[in-house]
Design brief:
Elements lengths: L1 E2 H7 L3 E3 L5 E2 L1 E2 L9 E4 L3 H9 L4 E5 L8 E5 L2 H12 L8 E2 L4 E2 L4 E2 L4 E2 L4 E2 L4 E2 L4 E2 L4 E2 L4 E2 L4 E2 L4 E2 L4 E2 L4 E2 L4 E4 L4 E4 L2 E4 L5 E4 L4 E2 L4 E3 L5 E4 L4 E2 L4 E2 L4 E2 L4 E2 L4 E2 L4 E2 L4 E2 L4 E2 L4 E2 L4 E2 L4 E2 L8 E3 L4 E2 H26 L1
Parallel strand pairs: 4-5, 5-6, 6-7, 8-11, 9-12, 10-13, 11-14, 12-15, 13-16, 14-17, 15-18, 16-19, 17-20, 18-21, 19-24, 20-25, 21-26, 24-27, 25-28, 26-29, 27-30, 28-31, 29-32, 31-34, 32-35, 33-36, 34-37, 35-38, 37-39
Antiparallel strand pairs: 1-3, 2-7, 22-23, 39-40
């Protein structure tokens, strides 16, 4: 339980009303009850929040209310993200190693680390402070994992991977599996051994059932602060810059390099050996077959600059009428 004033201090907000009232939870306007905090970004949401039972509303700008206590902030969603951990803190995990886990004697495990049931930790592994392996995790030899990392159930980390601090990897994800490398030799496909590694920077989050392949010779790299959704495939030697957003069901072919702050929307496919510039945006279901310069937004298949792609879509929509008119002209 926190007072409105305490929450306002945390989110750098200004209280309009009685700041001493206690808040016991956070909820959307349509389900908020007495004691809840909700938020509104625009007038239509604010009207719904005012009619709710919520005790206080996070609002931007100069919103006013005769019914509710307000916390004015620069960005209500950012403020909400700061407030949520107050009421929904991470589940505490006691330090220690579950007796069902198998730990190689050369592994270095910090005393503050939690290793859950049925984990396998191979030789030369190092686990940092307060790191949590929830269960059924396999960590390959010589892997280095930093502080405050969380591996959700059934995450597999292959050998020689490097994972930074404050990384979260969700259930079913595989880090460091072999890249897809073969050469055609005398009528058959000969496997090209993948001897590189995966390097993941600090503050990265990786969704469920994602696969990040090790480099063929060098490294596959995920930059700091990048957030990767569920069901993403990142092939060998891909380099993703800092603070990128990669949505679900995206696939990257090998050796493509992304700059910083790139956004890749769902179900897009990016061909190999490309360069995607800083702050580029790739729209949903796009097929990227060429380099993208800094700051450009592309759409479609094959992906084209957004204005060009939209003109093409409009032209395609008019095509049936153009064909009809052409047939009339031909008949004349």
């Amino acid at each position: 339980m926190f007072t409105i004033s305490e929450i306002a201090r945390l989110v750098d907000g200004e209280v309009i009303g009685d700041g001493a009232i206690s808040i016991t939870g956070i909820a959307a306007a349509d389900s908020a009850g007495a004691g809840d905090l909700t938020f509104a970004e625009k007038e239509s949401y604010f009207a719904a929040a005012e009619q709710s039972l919520a005790s206080a509303i996070l609002v931007p700008g100069d919103f006013k209310s005769s019914q509710k206590i307000l916390i004015r902030v620069k960005d209500p969603r950012v403020a909400l993200a700061k407030a949520l951990p107050l009421f929904f803190p991470p589940e505490p995990r006691e330090p220690g190693i579950h007796p069902s886990s198998v730990i190689h004697p050369t592994a270095q495990i910090d005393p503050t680390t939690h290793v859950g049931p049925h984990c396998i930790i191979e030789s030369g592994v190092r686990l940092g402070q307060r790191t949590v392996l929830m269960g059924n995790n396999s960590v390959g030899r010589d892997t280095k994992i930093g502080d405050d990392v969380v591996l959700h159930p059934n995450v597999v980390i292959y050998a020689k991977s490097q994972i930074g601090h404050r990384v979260a990897i969700h259930a079913g994800t595989v880090i460091g599996s072999d890249g897809y490398g073969y050469v055609f030799d005398q009528g058959r496909h000969r496997k090209m051994l993948q001897i590189g590694q995966v390097i993941i920077g600090d503050d990265v989050e990786i969704g469920a059932n994602t696969a990040i392949d090790r480099g063929a010779l060098g490294s596959t790299i995920i930059g700091k602060g990048t957030k990767i959704d569920n069901l993403v495939h990142i092939a060998h030697n891909v380099v993703i810059g800092d603070h990128c957003l990669v949505m679900g069901q995206v696939g990257f072919a090998g050796s493509t390099h992304l700059g910083n702050y790139v956004v890749v929307a769902s179900q897009s496919g990016i061909a190999g050996h490309l360069k995607i510039g800083n702050q580029a945006t790739i729209g949903a279901k796009s097929g990227v077959m060429r380099d993208i310069p800094d700051g450009e937004t592309v759409l479609g298949y094959p992906a084209a600059p957004d204005k060009q792609a939209k003109r093409q879509w409009i032209a395609m929509a008019k095509l049936p009428e153009v064909i009809r008119r052409l047939r009339i002209l031909e008949s004349r």
